[in-house]
Amino acid sequence: MYDNKLYQEIKASAKLEELVHSFWTHKNVMDEPQTITIVPDSFFKIIFLVQEECIVKYFMTGLWTEQKEFTIPPNTTSFGCRLKILAPEFLIQKEIASISNDIKPLDLAYLNIETFDLTNFLNVVQQWEDELMKLLLNKPIPKNKLLLSQLLYKTNGALSASEISTQIFWTNRQINRYLNKFIGIPLKRYLNIQKCYEAYLRIQKGKLAPEKNFFDQAHFIREIKKHTGETPKSLFKHQNDRFIQLRNIKE
Known about the structure:
This protein is α+β, with helices and mostly antiparallel strands. The protein has two domains: 4-133, Immunoglobulin-like, CATH 2.60.40; 143-248, Arc Repressor Mutant, subunit A, CATH 1.10.10.60. 36% of the residues lie in helices and 20% in strands. It has helices spanning 87-90, 121-133, 143-155, 161-168, 172-182, 187-204, 217-228, 232-237, 244-248; strands at 7-11, 20-28, 34-38, 44-51, 54-61, 68-72, 76-83, 103-105. The strands form two sheets. It has a six-stranded antiparallel sheet, covered by helices on one side. A hairpin with an 8-residue loop joins strand 1 (7-11) and strand 2 (20-28). The two termini are 23 Å apart.
């Protein structure tokens, strides 16, 4: 059985919140590997693994559009940073479209991660934010892009692509061109990921029927299975072991 105390999460501070969603840490305290399944959550990530206070793996993920299995080595602590859709252009200054559903190894010198004090999660977050702040461009984010990001994370898939376009006065074609360039998928696909992730909050509580954003029960099951490989019932059943991500998601 999974122990929630092994997981912690901290929201990004106000100075980074338009580009960074949150920071998290998870511990595998067992003497054997732990296999988990990660489902799409609409963020890309920077992650590093620590054993005996040494970083043993450091990488960036692209955006997941399907479930992925990962094996966490024994007695290993994972640290992660979830990044939003504007982060490729305005924070890391590179597209992540080329690593969609994949990972890219990072040099330990990137963000000076090799100098971090790893003994305390709060300290790790503060150091991480300090390094990310150094990457910020000295220019404002264009209003249309900022409104796009803010609306997406406020509504979490509740609006259609055309409704998003109308509200921010940016054409669907322009939005798709931007998202395809930087994160590798169009707006409608991104909204589907958000819609399913929002549904995970209900599945987490044992509510296995759709509330909104799905035509009917069959559509709900089909969409959830497309992104996770499992039915809502199976996700709920396994959230304490293989799908620990679902146990820890928050609104």
